[in-house]
Design goal:
Radius of gyration: 18 Å
Largest sheet: 8 strands, mixed
Structural class: alpha+beta
Number of domains: 2
Helix content: 25-40%
Distance between the termini: 46 Å
Bound molecules: D-MYO-inositol-1-phosphate, calcium ion
CATH topology of the largest domain: Fructose-1,6-Bisphosphatase, Chain A, domain 1
CATH superfamily of the largest domain: Fructose-1,6-Bisphosphatase, subunit A, domain 1
Length: 263
């Protein structure tokens, strides 16, 4: 699998930040038992990871703009290119010592996502995709699952929580989906939900109230693995609306139709 120079830059940045997060994850496990807990430590781990990624990306392409969860928008001289970065997706898992978290880096060119990297350092799983070149887990080419019957499908979602999302609407969506499927999972890291769709582990995924950095790399990952991604009405506003639905062609369509029935 030949990677472009730009994808190599993204992989190097993700791996470097991943080494730091792995060390910090070990420390988080020690801090669980302390009175104060690991909260402040995790916030600084998150910022350290973002600093590493920003430094690496800016060194390679000083003119590109950035959209990063912690630093926000950094305008670049080059208006055509923008990195979209979540330095730690799955913060709540990380904080609780659950090894399901990832670094997500996407490259947007003229409004289109052209490369994506999602790296889970705890499992040493590196997902990469380039537009038109397929999606990979480490060196293995990925393909979305082929299941078409919802009754055989495991579907991922994000459950709103304290202070976030529309709880009533979510319960209605859940009621519609859970009676049709073989299982529902809440992994806790949207970037990995999409990577798992690409890898054929999850058959479908839907969530609302996400941010561009949660999903930018994952959208390309799913498409390059032959899957379908849209907002909840079948449109392409995922990055702006924060709504997403993904799966193979049949599961994606079936989920959109089902979720449309939620009030
Ligand atoms: C969160 C995760 C989670 C999703 C949340 C996101 P964070 O990102 O992706 O799965 O349900 O809406 O905010 O805060 O861990 O980077
Ligand atoms: Ca996130
Ligand atoms: Ca984050």
């Amino acid at each position: 699998m030949a990677r472009s120079a730009l994808l190599n830059v993204m992989v190097a940045a993700a791996m470097k930040a991943g080494r730091g997060l792995s060390r910090d994850f070990g420390e988080v496990q020690n801090l669980q038992v302390s009175m104060k807990g690991p909260g402040d430590f995790v916030s600084s781990a998150d910022r350290r990871a973002e600093d590493v990624i920003r430094t690496e990306l800016q060194r390679a392409r000083p003119d590109y703009g950035l959209l990063m969860e912690e630093s926000g928008t950094i305008e670049g001289r080059d208006k055509q290119h923008r990195w979209i970065v979540d330095p730690l997706d799955g913060t709540t898992n990380f904080l609780h010592g659950i090894p399901i978290f990832a670094i997500s880096i996407a490259l947007e060119r003229e409004g289109q996502i052209v490369a994506g990297v999602i790296y889970n350092p705890a499992m040493d799983e590196l997902y990469t995709a380039e537009r038109g070149q397929g999606a990979f887990l480490n060196d293995r080419r990925l393909r979305v699952a082929g299941r078409r019957e919802l009754s055989q499908c495991v579907i991922g979602t994000g459950i709103p929580h304290l202070g976030r999302g529309n709880h009533g609407k979510f319960l209605e969506e859940m009621r519609l989906v859970m009676r049709e499927v073989s299982g529902i999972r809440r992994m806790g890291a949207a970037a990995l939900d999409l990577a798992y769709i690409a890898a054929g582990r999850l058959d479908g995924f839907w969530e609302q109230n996400l941010s561009a950095w949660d999903i930018a790399a994952g959208i390309l990952m799913v498409r390059e693995a032959g899957g379908y991604v849209s907002d909840l009405t079948g449109g392409a506003t995922m990055l702006e609306s924060g709504q997403i639905c993904a799966g193979n062609e049949t599961v994606h369509r079936t989920l959109i139709d089902l979720l449309a029935k939620a009030g």
